[in-house]
Amino acid sequence: MTKVARDYYGILGVQRNAGADEIKRAYRKLARELHPDVNPDEEAQHKFKEVTAAYEVLSDPQKRKIVDMGGDPLDNGGGGAGGMRDPFAGFGLGDIMDAFFGAAGGASTRGPRSRVQPGADALIRMRLTLEECLTGVSRELTVDTAILCELCRGSGCAEGTSPEVCETCGGRGEIQAVQRSFLGQVVTARPCPVCRGLGEVIPDPCRQCAGDGRVRSRRTIVAKVPPGVADGMRVRLSGQGEVGPGGGPAGDLYVEVEEQPHSTFERSGADLHCTLRVPMTTAALGAVLPLETLDGVEELELEPGTQHGMELVMSGRGMPKLRQSGRVDGRGDLHVHVDVEVPTRLDARQQELLRELATLRGEDEGGLATTNGKGGGFFSRMRSHRTR
Asked: Which Pfam families does the record match to this protein (predicted)?
């Protein structure tokens, strides 16, 4: 059976008349997507070997000529994916990119990294009542973060000493190795294992911070929380987080609000909701009732004939509307939901009065009023239903 030659042009997604630069660009794009350091999927690794082998063939004029004549220059047995080997075995994705984008001669231009690094952000949670969210608070907080070492002032060195150039990497912060591939000699670079990429070492570390330039300490700060904050919101305190290695600038401290549930009010954004329970006589006759709000006791007027489930709105009695800029833009509303309570136990006199009221109102037995405006109480509606 005749063996079909692999379509190396199709593997890279280029035309048969593609130039060397186009082939290189196609491979570079696929290598970024499929390299095991980026995509650990088994199928992606298989495709990476295929595109690498295809580039090895098409970038070599002699091997490409064999392909154009219908042959397969890699069809010589071997293992792996159809005899394809992985010429980049042992190379990281950074090494491949260095081979394409590195400076002339493959020399690295990264150099040593700075010992001084920015610090990380920190997070602390603060529990607030609804009243505290309304007014805002200033509260002392105890935080445990890294601070600047006062003994060495961040240098990490014992008094009277200074860092020295790393002898292993000569101050470059990295060590280089030369490996051969189909591209020729490829220079790869790795962070120096002695100085960890810093290019310098501290022969006599500070006895207080052990060369880190910072120590952990518990301290007290004042956090100012603005009015209108809600559960889950975060207030940023700039520069109050962790000091960075080598005495680097501190990160930020975020204070996350945990709003405690309230016994009376439920919050919905800037609006508040509460339930007001009133006797049926009060709902029928109307009244002016005292209502406890977050601003104190205020009067709420119930109109005569107030129905169960009605919602009364008190404008501007909700929570402050806190904008992203930190400014407060007015307040929300307080929504009062009326719950009309019907008595469940009546003495003889109360029952007599209710029957008298029902008679005066022309209501039938059972005290039920008409619902459709056509007359007839509960029992008459039952009779009309049975005769249909």
From this structure: DnaJ, DnaJ_C, DnaJ_CXXCXGXG
Helices 93-101 and 20-34: crossing angle in degrees, nearest 10, is: 160
Token pair of 137, please?
A: 């608070």
**Of 134, 56, 197, nearest in space to 334 by CA:** 134
| Sheet strands (E) in 151-295 | 164-165, 174-181, 184-191, 200-201, 214-225, 234-237, 253-259, 266-268, 271-279, 287-293
Helices (H), 40-102: 42-58, 61-68, 93-101
Write the DSSP string, 110-178: --PPPS--PPPPEEEEEEE-HHHHHH-EEEEEEEEEEEE-TTTTTS-BPTT---EE-TTTTTSSEEEEE
d(CA 92, CA 179): 13
Q: Which long-range contacts (CB under 8 A, 24 or more apart) does 179-183 make?
A: 179/90, 179/91, 181/87, 181/88, 181/91, 181/99, 182/55, 182/56, 182/59, 182/60, 182/87, 183/59, 183/99
195 is in an annotated binding site: yes
What residues contact 34, with CB distance under 8 A and at least 6 apart? 44, 45, 47, 48, 51
208 near 215, Cβ under 8 Å? Answer: yes
Query: pLDDT-derived band of residue 5, with 50, 70 and 90 as boundaries?
Result: low
In this structure, of 12-16, 98-102, 167-171, the range with the lowest mean pLDDT score is 98-102
| Count of other CB atoms within 10 angstroms of residue 35 | 23
- The CA distance from 64 to 52, in Å, is 14
CB burial string 9-22: b at 16+ within 10 A, e below: bebbebeeebeeee
**169 annotated among ligand-binding-site residues:** yes
pLDDT band at 148 (very low <50, low <70, confident <90, very high): very high
Q: Is 133 annotated as a binding residue?
A: no
Annotated binding residue at 157?
Answer: no
- Residue 244 per-residue DSSP state: B
Q: Establish whether 274 is an annotated binding residue.
A: no
Measured at the CA of 34, the angle between CA 31 and CA 36, to 5 degrees, comes to 105
Token pair 């035309």: residue: 15
Report which residue type is found at 130: L
Compare 183 and 267 and report the one with higher pLDDT.
267
Strand, helix or coil at 276? strand
Backbone phi, then psi, for 42, in 5-degree steps? -65, -40
Amino acid at residue number 14: V
